[in-house]
Amino acid sequence: MPMNTNGDFDDFYRDTSRRLARYAYGLTGDPGDAQDLVQEAYARAWQRWRRLADYEDREAWLRLVVNRLSADRWRRLGVRRARAAAEPPPPHTPPPSEDTVLLIRAMRTLPMAHRRALALHYLLDRSVAEIAHETGSSIGTVKSWLSRGRAGLAAALGSDAPALTTNGADDAH
Fold first, then answer.
1. Where in the chain are the domains?
2. CA angle, 165 as apex, 160 and 169 as ends, to 5°?
3. What's the rounded Cα separation, in Å, for the pair 5 and 119?
4. What is the pLDDT of residues 26-52, one digit of tens each?
5. What b-and-e string marks burial along 63-72, b requiring 16 or more CB atoms within 10 Å of the CB?
6. Same fold for the pair 1-95 and 96-173
7. Which fold has domain 1-95?
């Protein structure tokens, strides 16, 4: 089947870019870093678009790229954080809400596996089974990550904790 590369990629980008940006923001806690990760992930997807046509879940591939890029950035965070502290935030960016700041600060205290599971589950509405499949982990492991992640957030947030309800979403459907 002939593939219209530009049109397919454009449609894919339109359909996935907002979710991927939310996911990247959930991992990094920084809108600028999240945007950089998303742009790099889509640039890599564009370069490999013909190969990605055979993938069952191209969006999962993008999230994997964002995960790896995010992990690389966390390793180099010390240097970037020093530079960022010296620069004021751009004036056109509205400040995040106090709840968002508290939540992102708390997310940064969690191990990457917990952050990733929470971001996939709460920001992208992925089921436990979908997260297990995407991460190559068991359903029990994902449930543990979510439980420990929520407990870690509750401990980090203390009495300021916004409610993280599961609404039955932890079921492996």
1. 1-95, 96-173
2. 155
3. 30
4. 888 889 989 999 999 999 999 999 998
5. bebbbebbee
6. no
7. Rna Polymerase Sigma Factor; Chain: A (1.10.1740)
Considering the entire predicted model, what is its pTM? Answer: 0.58
**Range 96-173 classified under CATH 1.10.720.60:** no
Low-confidence ranges of the chain (pLDDT < 50): 1-3, 167, 169, 171-173
Residue-level pLDDT at 78: 62
φ, ψ at 170 (rounded to 5°): -80, -5
Q: Which amino acid is at 133?
A: H
- C-alpha span between 147 and 143 (Å, rounded): 6
Between helix 31-47 and helix 58-75 the angle, nearest 10°, is 130
Q: Which residue has the tokens 């939540």?
A: 103
Res 164: pLDDT: 54
The string of DSSP letters for 57-121 reads -HHHHHHHHHHHHHHHHHHTHHHHHHHHHHSPPPTTSPPPPHHHHHHHHHHTTS-HHHHHHHIII
Rounded to whole angstroms, how far apart are CA atoms 10 and 169? 31
pLDDT of residue 17: 94
Query: Distance between CA atoms of 87 and 90, rounded to whole angstroms?
Result: 9
